[in-house]
């Protein structure tokens, strides 16, 4: 049995960022069930950073993470982690009340008159579709591969280990130490971190604890060819005010999604034809652009806590159990903030008490 100070269960961006933060002072191992890091939600993300996207707690986490993306540690990344990409939130006449809610949450949003929305969308949205636009110039595209690689290198630099194809099958606590049986061998550590994404409540079950009530939702997306008249370098992320659809540049194509949320068990999510068809229909309705072929399609799971705010903190039911879970659709953009908080909690350092309370797993634990 291999001995460590911390065993991190899950090799997505949450687990990797946490392991990188702890590896400087502790012997850390990351246990990933799949054969590659970031296989599920992390690798299937829309890879965008929206400062105005999320509830009040998420917006606070966005601000913290922005500092990391703008100025990562020396030698962390070979290229910038974030590149400017405005967000344009569009509201039809019947969606103006929802637009007001967006404005209430963020000071970054600037109103765009209906007549100016087509130009603000780089010419994609048709005239008369939107009654109002809200433009956020402070957003950007995130380099998810660069982020994963930066964390991986940091873990290795400090002597940490990463083990793939290590599905955790059994967990037991002996005194102040945990033992974990995996498909890649046995491991032990006094602290385990549950960063297993869609499977986080399953890990709780292996420990013998009640679940926190996390729910997974499938979201599908597709790549299509952009109209020849569109300059993708100046194309913003376009998001419906009620999140009925969005589209954005991606690898020289346009990524479109109906922003679907279909309840799902933890699984290797696959796209449903109806969701892809709905995304294409809404895109065509908003733009008058005909889509003749879908070039690629995929799906991922977004895991939410019951109150749609992430779970970060030590579990009071078992000594040495840390949670980072329920990040929903914000996992990439808030990963630096969540790992920073988690590392401080593990180290017993001072934290923002209001933020820590808002994320504490105790809010879902029955007495």
Q: What radius of gyration results from the CA coordinates?
A: 21 Å
Mean pLDDT: 96
Report the portion of residues in β strands.
25-35%
What is the tally of helical segments?
Answer: 9
Q: Label the overall shape.
A: elongated
Uncertain ranges: none
Textual characterization of the structure:
It is a single chain. By secondary structure, the chain is α/β, with parallel strands linked by helices. The protein folds into 2 domains: 2-50 and 144-213 and 307-364, FAD/NAD(P)-binding domain; 86-138 and 215-304, D-Amino Acid Oxidase, Chain A, domain 2. It is 27% helix and 28% strand. It has 9 helices and 22 strands. The strands form 4 sheets. Strands 6, 7, 8, 15, 16, 17, 18, 19 and 20 form a 9-stranded mixed β-sheet that branches. Helix 1 packs parallel to helix 5, helix 1 packs parallel to helix 8 (331-347) and helix 2 packs across helix 8. It is elongated and about 65 Å long. The chain starts with a strand and ends in an 8-residue tail after the last helix. The relative contact order is 0.19. The mean pLDDT is 96.
Task: Name the features.
single chain, 367 residues, alpha/beta, FAD/NAD(P)-binding domain, D-Amino Acid Oxidase, Chain A, domain 2, six-stranded mixed beta sheet, 9 helices, 22 strands
